[in-house]
UniProtKB/TrEMBL annotation, chain A:
Organism: Acetobacter indonesiensis
Keyword Oxidoreductase belongs to the record: yes
Name of the protein in its database record: ABC transporter substrate-binding protein
Enzymatic reactions: N(6)-[(R)-lipoyl]-L-lysyl-[protein] + pyruvate + H(+) = N(6)-[(R)-S(8)-acetyldihydrolipoyl]-L-lysyl-[protein] + CO2
Annotated Dehydrogenase E1 component domain residues: 14-308
Function in brief: The pyruvate dehydrogenase complex catalyzes the overall conversion of pyruvate to acetyl-CoA and CO(2). It contains multiple copies of three enzymatic components: pyruvate dehydrogenase (E1), dihydrolipoamide acetyltransferase (E2) and lipoamide dehydrogenase (E3).
Gene3D superfamilies linked: 3.40.50.970
Any Gene Ontology biological process: pyruvate decarboxylation to acetyl-CoA
Transmembrane intervals: none
Highest taxon above the source species: Bacteria
MF terms in GO: pyruvate dehydrogenase (acetyl-transferring) activity
InterPro entries for this protein: DH_E1, PDH_E1_Alpha_Subunit, THDP-binding
TrEMBL record, chain B:
Organism annotation: Acetobacter indonesiensis
Chain ranges of the Transketolase-like pyrimidine-binding domain: 4-190
A Pfam family the protein falls into: Transketolase_C
Protein's name in the database: Pyruvate dehydrogenase
Keywords, comma-separated and alphabetical: Oxidoreductase, Pyruvate
Entry GO MF terms: oxidoreductase activity
Oxidoreductase is among the record's keywords: yes
Gene from which the chain derives: acoB2
Entry superkingdom: Bacteria
Entries under SUPFAM superfamilies matching the protein: Thiamin diphosphate-binding fold (THDP-binding), TK C-terminal domain-like
Lineage summary: Bacteria, Pseudomonadati, Pseudomonadota, Alphaproteobacteria, Acetobacterales
Length: 321, 342
C-alpha cells in the first residue's frame, strides 16, 4: 500500500527523534546527571513508529520500562519527556514519574511501566472503554519477549479474546529479557501462544519500517473493525544494555555491531525512500538537522529547569482525600 | 425506608448508580453467571453470594461483564478502563484472591495519579468479601484491610451495617480515586432500615454508635456490632462506652478518636485482622503519640492471634474477637490503673 509523503516524513522524523533522544541519554547518563536508571530503545524505532502511524489521540497505548520510543511515537512532548527524565518540575509528570512512568493520557499514552507485563491487563481495560463507549478506538499493548512469559500477559490474551476486545498485543521481541535470551526463556512460540487463545497472529521484521507499517495496519484494522484482538510479533534487536550501564557481556563480540551495520531501521528507511524516489535525501537531512536542534534544546532546557517544589511531595496522591 | 439486608443494600446501591451513570459497569467472576456452558439460565448466580443478582437483566451485557477466573487480567482491566473513561466496579469475590492480582492494585491503580503528576483519575471500586466466622478456612477468611490501608493512593472502606454499606458504596462509586470496598461475608443477611432513595456517607468521618463516659472502643466492620453488644451489656453493669466506627481506614478520622479518648481516658481497639501491623497497632500509636496524657490505663487491643484463620468451628471461635472478649477487656481497663496493668 502506498504511504503518503507526509506520513513518510512524519514517520522518519519520529524515528530519528527517538534515535537522537536515546543516544543523547546514553551520553548524558554517563555524566551522572540523570537520576535513577534508563532503558534505551535504539534499534527498535520502526516498531513504535510503524504501529503508532495508524493511531490517533483517541487510541490508547500502554508501554514498558523501555518506553521513550512509544511515547515519542504517540506524540508526547519531547521537551517535557526530557525534563521528566531529569526529574524536573517541567516534566510531563512534573518530575514525579521519571523515565519508567512517562504518561500523557491526553495523547492516549497510558504510561510506560516499571512492571514487566504491567501493560497488557491495563490495555484490556482501555479496549473495554473503547468498546463500551463506542468511540471507534483501539488499544495497543507493547510488551517484550520477557513480558510474554508473565502470567498477567497470558491472562490478558485470554480475556481480550473472551471479550472480543479491540486490542493489539505487540510483542517487541528483541531477543533478550534483561540478560537472558528469549531462546532460553520463551517456551514454544509466540505464534502458538496466539493460536492457543484463538487470536490471529502476524509477524514482521521490526527493523523494516515498511513491513511494520503494513502489518500493523492489518492488525489494527482487524481490531478496530470489531473482529477481536490480534497478536503482532515484531522481531527486533536492542543496541544498548537492558539498562544504561549494562556492559552486555552476555552477548557475543560483534553481535551489536553487526545489528547496527545490517539492521538499522533508519538506514533501511533512507535507502528505500531515496532509491524509490519517494523522498529526497535533502528532505531527510533537513529532518536530521531539525531533530538534532530539538534534542539539544530539550537537554539544555531540562538541565536549566527547576526542581519540583517541596509541596509537590504531598500533592496528587488522591483526587480528594 | 424499609428493612433491607446487607446484600440488598449493596445491590440497590449498584443498581441506583448504574441507572444514574452509564459509565458505571460491573465486572467479575460470575457477577451474572450462566454464560457459555449448556446455555442454562442467564444471570444464574448474580455473584457467588447473590449480591449482583438481577443487574445483568436490567443493564445488559455491555454493563455487566462476567470474567474468566483470571484476577490479574480483569482487575488490571478495571484500572485501565477507569483511567480511560469508565467507572468500573470490579468484584474480587474473596479478598484473599488479591494474591493473584496485587500488582494491578499496588503498582498500577494506586500509583497512576501520583506517578503521572496528577494527570490521571482512576475511578474504580474493587468489592471483595473479607472476614472469618464462616468456616471458610485460611484462604477465604482473611481481613486484609491493613494491606490496602498501607498503600498510598487507595481508599479503604469497611461498612459495619446495611445502612452504612449502601451510603458508603454509592460514595465509593462516585469517588474519583481507586476504592477498596470490603464486605464482611458473615453479614450479608443482617437487616436494618435502609432508605429506598440514594444517599452517600462521606469518607473519613467516623460514626459514634454508642456514647459513654468510661471507655472508648474503636471497632472495624463486623466488630462494630460486637462492640455495641458489649457496650449494651456493660451499661447494665454501670460502665458506659463510646463505640467508634471509623467507616474508612483510608482516609482515617483521627480527630474523632483523639477527642473521645480525651474524654474517656481509656481505649480498646477491636480489629479482626492479623495483629502485627494492623489497624489496632496504628490506632494505638496514634493515641500514644497524641493523647498520652489523657490515658488512665493502657490501651488494649482485642485482636486475633498471629495465626492463619483455622477451619474447625471451636478453633475459629477461639480465634475471633467477640463481645465477651471486648467486655472482658473493658473490665480490665476499668479495674486497673496504668502501672498495675503493665
Amino acid at each position: 500500500m502506498q504511504i503518503a509523503r507526509e506520513t513518510l516524513l512524519q514517520s522518519y522524523r519520529a524515528m530519528r527523534t527517538i534515535r537522537v533522544f536515546e543516544e543523547r541519554l546514553h551520553v548524558e547518563f554517563a555524566t551522572g546527571e540523570i537520576p535513577g536508571f534508563v532503558h534505551l530503545y535504539c534499534g527498535e524505532e520502526a516498531s513504535a513508529v510503524g504501529v503508532c502511524a495508524h493511531l490517533n489521540d483517541n487510541d490508547t497505548i500502554a508501554s514498558t520500562h523501555r518506553g521513550h520510543g512509544h511515547c515519542i511515537a504517540k506524540g508526547v512532548d519531547v521537551g517535557g519527556m526530557m525534563a521528566e527524565i531529569y526529574g524536573r518540575q517541567t516534566g510531563v509528570c512534573r518530575g514525579k514519574g521519571g523515565s519508567m512512568h512517562i504518561a500523557d493520557l491526553s495523547k492516549g499514552m497510558l504510561g510506560a511501566n516499571g512492571i514487566v507485563g504491567g501493560g497488557p491487563p491495563l490495555i484490556c481495560g482501555a479496549a473495554l472503554s473503547h468498546k463500551v463507549l463506542k468511540d471507534n478506538g483501539v488499544a495497543i499493548a507493547f510488551y517484550g519477549d520477557g513480558a510474554s512469559n508473565e502470567g498477567f500477559t497470558l491472562e490478558s490474551l485470554n480475556l481480550a479474546s473472551v471479550w472480543q476486545l479491540p486490542a493489539v498485543f505487540v510483542v517487541e521481541d528483541n531477543g533478550y529479557g534483561e540478560a537472558t535470551g528469549a531462546s532460553y526463556a520463551c517456551a514454544g512460540t509466540q505464534k502458538d501462544r496466539a493460536a492457543g487463545f484463538g487470536m490471529p497472529y502476524m509477524e514482521c521484521d521490526g527493523t523494516d519500517f515498511f513491513a511494520v507499517h503494513e502489518t500493523a495496519r492489518e492488525a489494527i484494522d482487524h481490531a478496530r473493525s470489531g473482529k477481536g484482538p490480534v497478536m503482532l510479533h515484531v522481531h527486533l534487536s536492542r543496541w544498548y544494555g537492558h539498562f544504561e550501564g549494562d556492559s552486555m557481556t552476555y552477548r557475543k563480540a560483534g553481535e551489536v555491531a553487526a545489528e547496527k551495520e545490517n539492521r538499522d531501521c533508519l538506514k533501511h528507511f533512507r535507502d528505500r525512500v531515496t532509491s524509490a524516489g519517494l523522498l529526497d535525501a535533502s528532505a531527510l537531512d533537513d529532518i536530521d538537522s531539525a531533530v538534532n536542534d530539538e534534542i539539544e534544546s530539550a537537554v539544555i532546557a531540562a538541565k536549566a529547569a527547576p526542581w519540583p517544589e517541596d509541596a509537590a511531595l504531598m500533592a496528587d496522591v488522591y483526587v480528594k482525600y | 425506608m424499609s428493612k433491607k439486608s446487607f446484600r440488598q443494600a449493596i445491590n440497590e446501591a449498584l443498581r441506583q448508580e448504574m441507572r444514574r451513570d452509564p459509565r458505571v459497569i460491573l465486572m467479575g467472576e460470575d457477577v451474572a453467571g450462566g454464560r457459555g456452558g449448556t446455555s442454562g439460565v442467564q444471570d444464574a448466580w448474580g455473584g457467588v453470594l447473590g449480591v449482583t443478582k438481577g443487574l445483568l437483566t436490567e443493564f445488559g451485557e455491555e454493563r455487566v461483564w462476567d470474567t474468566p477466573i483470571s484476577e490479574a487480567s480483569y482487575i488490571g482491566a478495571a484500572a485501565g478502563a477507569a483511567a480511560t473513561g469508565l467507572r468500573p466496579v470490579a468484584e474480587l469475590m474473596f479478598v484473599d484472591f488479591i494474591g493473584s492480582c496485587l500488582d494491578q492494585v499496588l503498582n498500577q491503580a494506586a500509583k497512576f495519579r501520583y506517578m503521572f503528576g496528577g494527570k490521571a483519575r482512576t475511578p474504580m471500586v474493587i468489592r471483595a468479601m473479607y472476614g472469618a466466622g464462616f468456616n471458610a478456612a485460611a484462604q477465604h477468611s482473611q481481613s486484609l484491610y491493613p494491606l490496602f490501608t498501607h498503600i498510598p493512593g487507595l481508599k479503604v472502606v469497611i461498612p459495619s451495617s446495611p445502612y452504612e454499606a449502601k451510603g458508603l458504596l454509592i460514595e465509593a462509586i462516585r469517588d474519583d480515586d481507586p476504592v477498596i470496598f470490603l464486605e464482611n461475608k458473615v453479614m450479608y443477611d443482617d437487616e436494618e432500615d435502609v432508605p429506598d432513595e440514594s444517599y452517600t456517607i462521606p469518607f473519613g468521618e467516623a460514626n459514634l454508635t454508642r456514647e459513654g463516659e468510661d471507655v472508648t472502643i474503636v471497632a472495624i466492620g463486623r466488630m462494630v456490632g460486637m462492640a455495641n453488644e458489649a457496650a449494651d451489656r456493660l451499661e447494665k453493669q454501670g460502665i458506659t462506652c463510646t463505640v467508634i466506627d471509623p467507616r474508612t481506614t483510608s482516609p482515617f478520622d483521627e480527630d474523632t478518636i483523639l477527642e473521645c479518648v480525651e474524654e474517656t481516658g481509656r481505649l480498646i481497639v477491636v480489629d479482626e485482622s492479623s495483629p502485627r501491623c494492623n489497624m489496632a497497632c496504628d490506632i494505638s500509636a496514634l493515641v500514644a503519640e497524641r493523647a498520652f496524657g489523657a490515658l488512665k490505663a493502657p490501651i488494649l487491643r482485642v485482636v486475633p492471634p498471629h495465626t492463619p484463620v483455622p477451619f474447625s468451628t471451636p478453633l475459629e471461635k477461639l480465634y475471633m474477637p467477640s463481645a465477651d472478649k471486648i467486655e472482658a477487656a473493658v473490665k480490665t481497663v476499668m479495674k486497673q490503673h496504668a502501672r498495675e496493668v503493665a
